[in-house]
Amino acid sequence: MAKQYDVLFRLLLLGDSGVGKTCMMRRFTEGEFDPSHISTIGVDFKMKTLEIDGIKVRVQIWDTAGQERYKTITKQYYRRAQGIVFVYDITNEPSFQHIAKWASDADEYAPDKVQRILVGNKSDEELRRMVTTDQGSKLAQTYEMEFFETSASASSNISESFTRMTELVLRAHKRDADNLLSSLDDYLEKAALEDEGSTTTRDFGELNQLQSKYPHRLVVLGFPCNQFGYQENCSNGEILSSLQHVRPGGGFRPNFTIFEKCDVNGTNTHPVFAYLKDKLPYPDDDANSLMQDPKFLVWSPISRTDVSWNFEKFLVGPEGEPFKRYSKKFPTIDIEPDIVRLLRLTKT
């Protein structure tokens, strides 16, 4: 698997609701600014790759909800962060005063080695300023943090602050940078090997079995997706050849229809999967089947109904009504009783 980066760091944005965390993240990762304010629900994230001192760093930026009711959700992400950006709004003095609370939470839940900076956002709104630059600078000194004033609207100091945050994290982890979260690649290679010897080979073979057994009344459809560990990183034109010679290999040829690659989660979710997930929000055999490790969440926004990994399966009735959803752990061949049940209920 070709490496797309050398190390991966997770940065956490903390601060009150409305201080501009989402706007900062979008300005940095997408170069866009949307003045309309929609509060983040739970946690959202974006990614961007930087090159620092010849090292390709993939930055995963987690945008946390500022509302009190989401604290239980957001705190679980503290312990996996390598860097924290504390954000207040220079036109909102309470948001500045609340930095102490956010810093206290970070002290309690974040790793000891986590790097921190303080950011006063909305510096373009000078006429509405309630917190002086000197106040911000002194608070940063109190917590031994570097300080930036930024404007997502004017794109001022956004890149500089995120880049500096990344530099601090990289420096703090310089000795083990080769291992720090670039172990993601080792994990994916291990997962690929495990799939090759078990899940992938088994599932593809069983899909062929089902299609062969019910050739006229069952239609098996395969949708390749590259959102799970970047395991489907070949081009559309290479997919069939990859199945034949790589995974599952051994000359395998699917006897069912395989479509072009698509997204099954996030902003660009294929309409088919948007519909399926709406009708069947979670696998019938595993209602808690969620992506457990935040570093593999490469889409946005994140939803409770998201497909968690390759080979989640959906069984759809003859009228197009979704019947049952199965987790990646559920053996494909074991869907057959449900298929038989649907066929018995359907007129020939």
TrEMBL record:
PROSITE patterns: GLUTATHIONE_PEROXID_2, GLUTATHIONE_PEROXID_3, RAB, RAS, RHO. It catalyses: GTP + H2O = GDP + phosphate + H(+). Its main location: membrane. It is a lipid-anchor. Coiled coil: none annotated. Its cofactor is Mg(2+). CDD domains: GSH_Peroxidase. GO terms for biological process: protein transport; response to oxidative stress. Its EC number is 3.6.5.2. It comes from the Eukaryota. Keywords: Cell membrane, GTP-binding, Hydrolase, Lipoprotein, Magnesium, Membrane, Metal-binding, Methylation, Nucleotide-binding, Oxidoreductase, Peroxidase, Prenylation, Protein transport, Transport. GO terms for cellular component: plasma membrane. It is found in: Cell membrane. GO terms for molecular function: G protein activity; GTP binding; metal ion binding; peroxidase activity. The small GTPases Rab are key regulators of intracellular membrane trafficking, from the formation of transport vesicles to their fusion with membranes. Rabs cycle between an inactive GDP-bound form and an active GTP-bound form that is able to recruit to membranes different sets of downstream effectors directly responsible for vesicle formation, movement, tethering and fusion. RAB15 may act in concert with RAB3A in regulating aspects of synaptic vesicle membrane flow within the nerve terminal. The GTP bound form of RAB15 interacts with REP15. Interacts (GTP-bound form) with MICAL1, MICAL3, MICALCL, EHBP1 and EHBP1L1. Belongs to the small GTPase superfamily. Rab family. Belongs to the glutathione peroxidase family. This is Ras-related protein Rab-15. It comes from Scophthalmus maximus.
